[in-house]
């Protein structure tokens, strides 16, 4: 495969759930070494598109080529071979709770390679080091923090040195500092391993930090596909609405929100009115 062959190429993809048309003529191409972010509001079709790229759904019409192969024409064996060149870091981490971190990460090597246990141990420890979890192989997933679980999921996703890495909502459920460190990890993985990385997210801060290009989905359509700068400066009203939604959310005062949820009244003791009223 040449450097000019897209790692992922989607042409005129259409999907229906029953009568519902959920992906409408979606076309895109992800180039080698590119971090490509699929973003959009809830229900815009991000997960459906990701599931297509992973070969988990069949489209109503359209073509999907992964690493140069049309995934809907592959035999079961060819499909399995292709899967070994794709890594997936799921939203929840999806580690097996009954296995140690090291065994979770070694699993793809044990299932898909003939490597001996010594080599598997070395590769596992190397990948843990890449995600800054060196020395954690004997812990159980329940002993890890949310951010560490995501890191371990990344270690497992890259253990076979994939050409293509998929990340589903990598920053979901993390506080901003930990989320930002996961963004740094994604950038570092791309720079160190040169793979294409496809990230599905609705986190705008993360998108703007890591993306080479952004595909904005809206109601199943590609609303825009461009660089960070171009998306930020787009004068399309629907894109601006998506970007502004973040601004509105960021303006919510978390303490006031919590007080409202608890049914507490606003505290007026320091207001000018209270002082005037002698309170
Ligand atoms: N299995 C299903 N059967 C029927 N409709 C579905 C199914 N899965 C998703 N949908 C619908 O398809 C549309 C796209 O859903 P999808 O989950 O791909 O969106 P999304 O962008 O990933 O949303 P979110 O960010 O909330 O996860 C939505 O209207 C959703 O209700």
Automatic annotation (TrEMBL):
* UniProt entry keywords in alphabetical sequence: ATP-binding, Nucleotide-binding, Transport
The keyword Nucleotide-binding is assigned to this record: yes
Has UniProt tagged this entry with the keyword Cytoplasm?
Answer: no
SMART domains according to UniProt: AAA
TM stretches of this protein: none
Which residues are in the ABC transporter domain? 8-244
Q: Which InterPro entries match?
A: AAA+_ATPase, ABC_transporter-like_ATP-bd, ABC_transporter-like_CS, P-loop_NTPase
Which molecular function terms from Gene Ontology are attached?
A: ATP binding
- Entry's Gene3D superfamilies? P-loop containing nucleotide triphosphate hydrolases
Q: Name one Pfam family in it.
A: ABC_tran
Protein name in the entry: ABC transporter ATP-binding protein
